[in-house]
Amino acid sequence: MLKISNLEKRYGKNEPVLKGLDLTVDGSSVVSIVGASGAGKSTLLRCINRLVEPTSGRIQLNGLDLVDLRGAELRRARRKIGMVFQGFNLIDRLTVMENVLSGRLGYVSLYRAITRKYPQSDIDRAFHLMERVGIDHYANKRADQLSGGERQRVAVVRALMQEPEILLADEPTASLDPKTSQQIMSLLQALASEMDLPVLINIHNVTQARMYTDRIVGMRHGQMIFDGGPKDFNQDALDAIYGGIESPDEQGQTIETAPAAEGASV
Ligand SMILES: Nc1ncnc2c1ncn2[C@@H]1O[C@H](COP(=O)(O)OP(=O)(O)OP(=O)(O)O)[C@@H](O)[C@H]1O
């Protein structure tokens, strides 16, 4: 279980960008975080894995307090937090398999990592997961020879190699075309349930948030102003989250009817 209590983040002397946020995520739920640009969505995710230092408040993952961890303890805790990014963050010159195995870096010795002598159990797990997401035939291909959707699948498998207790996804579909975005969202939803893994997804596309996640958290100016199921996420919620905010294109959100998801393989 992820339990965030009274989380505040202030960059320098500026106004806080997270203002006393509380959020609990249990079981294998898939939670989307929506909000206008600057609402604090990325900051929230990055506080969880401590890529950003919280100013105050508490973050617990399955009972472990994350905020005060340092050094080796923090590294150990980070293994349990998988993360997927908008830009995939793969190492282009390495193969798919090498990228995937890098998800084990927190577990294997430096010698094994440098010499790329990963235990057979890691290699088996890598193949199993690559097969699950449909990229096993690319194992020996360079990462930069894959399409965006394939690259994001590699990133998802790399995160799963960590044997995470939670998966964080920061705009995982923002660089993908609509159909591929749906496939990735559908994949994340399926993996959450298969692996009993909570997944937190920052996403701008509210239609996809409603389609592929169990719960939507709406943020505005660093505060949570909506927390409910997709069915409760109506035009009023949308107006409360985005209303009156100067909007470059994607912030002029409206609720669309469900896009055709046919052919979206999971
Ligand atoms: N490293 C930083 N230093 C100073 N201010 C920052 C830093 N990172 C983010 N901010 C500010 O914090 C606020 C929240 O940013 P954040 O990236 O968390 O929002 P967001 O909701 O994820 O936005 P977007 O959807 O555009 O990614 C913004 O005003 C941003 O300018």
Ligands, ions, cofactors? adenosine-5'-triphosphate
Name the structural class.
alpha/beta
Q: First CA to last CA: what distance?
A: 26 Å
CATH H-level superfamily of the largest domain:
P-loop containing nucleotide triphosphate hydrolases
Rg for CA atoms: 18 Å
From the structure provided, what is the oligomeric state, counting identical versus distinct chains?
Answer: single chain
Q: In percent, how helical is the residue content? A: 25-40%
Largest sheet: 6 strands, mixed
Task: Give the mean pLDDT.
Answer: 90
Please give the CATH class of the largest domain.
Alpha Beta
The CATH topology of the largest domain is what?
A: Rossmann fold
Discrete helix count: 9
Domain count: 2
Q: Detail the poorly predicted runs.
A: 258-266
H/E element order = EEEHEEHEHHHHEHEHEEH
Number of beta-strand segments: 10
What is the beta-strand fraction?
15-25%
Tell me what the CATH architecture of the largest domain is.
3-Layer(aba) Sandwich
Shape: globular
